[in-house]
Amino acid sequence: MSKQIALVILLAAGALASCNAQPREQAPRIAIDSQWPELPEDAVFGQPSAVDVDSHGHVFVLHRAGREWVEPFTTEAIAQPTVFMFSPEGALLARWAADELVMPHGLSIDDEDDIWITDVAREQVLRFSHDGILRSEWGVRGQAGQDGEHFGRPADIAFLGDTVLIADGYTNNRIARFDREGNFLGQWGEEGQDAGEFDLPHGISTDGERIFVADRENARISVLTTDGEPAGEWRGLERGHTYSVKPLGGGWSLAVEGRDMLDRNGAIMRVYRPDGTVERSFDLGLEGDNASLGHDIALDRAGRAYMIDVYGNRVIRFDLAGVETDRDE
């Protein structure tokens, strides 16, 4: 076969694959609060990773201050503050955790307004006071493992009563359970266990009755009982990989997909009914390929939602009242 004929065959095959490729999802857009937040000129901000809201309405944003996810990870801590606290109006009230975190990933706030952070490079879970004082650290810094004293790139944290649930994570593929003092209670997701097998449990949340796991590489939301038993497997519209899911109340949930089945990045939000079917989808990504990566979401008590966009270097806010559903019918 001549080189010219081989080239023609390759080009034709590529064109055919392109024609058969699943098109990017076209979802409607909703309005966002373009005035929120307000960042002063001296604030070093970049690669935001996680967001949560405390009992006072303060919005905590975890970010990497310009550091990008590059492997192998450095061991050097980020010199700039990596936790920003905003008022409900968007003013930057506090910034802390300078010279502390290496590759921060998840942030969750407990019922005492303590701030819990996962660091995938440090292989640790860190608990801070509301004003940034380190109270405890779980795991051995820089050492990976799968037991009660080690993690494998822990991703996210949720709280079920006095139990701390850790989505662990990028290499361990388990949900590790601890009490508030750090005593290991067991794990879900091991091969052969009733909770099934996870493939990168990236986010975790609970409404007190069910546990929701953003089972990213399985492209699903894994729903568990509070005892870790399987209670559902939600795959949305068979379109993408879930990065974060949060309960809305009444059995409803809100989730963000940061990548579709063809590994194209974006930020698609989905509202799930209590039975796991999709009520509505909408797009919060920026225009252009790989311009956005929806990574985490949080809800406040005023009916607003916050979404982390890693590649867009932004955290955006929108009103859940604009997300019409049939919940009241």
Labels describing this entry:
mainly beta, disordered N terminus, 1 helix, four-stranded antiparallel beta sheet, 5% helix, 329 residues
Polypeptide structure, described:
With 329 residues, this protein is mostly beta strands. The chain is built from 1 helix and 23 strands. The protein is 5% helix and 42% strand. It has a 4-stranded antiparallel beta sheet, with no helix packed on it. A 4-stranded antiparallel beta sheet has the order 5-6-7-8, with no helix packed on it. The chain is globular and about 45 Å long. The termini are far apart.
Task: Label the structural class.
Answer: mainly beta
**Strand-residue proportion:** 35-45%
Major sheet description: 4 strands, antiparallel
Strand order of the largest sheet: 1-2-3-4
In N-to-C order, the SSE pattern is HEEEEEEEEEEEEEEEEEEEEEEE
What's the Cα radius of gyration? 20 Å
Helix content: under 10%
- Low-confidence regions: 1-20
* Helix count from the secondary structure assignment: 1
Q: If you average the pLDDT, what whole number results?
A: 91
The counted number of beta strands is 23
Straight-line N-to-C gap: 66 Å
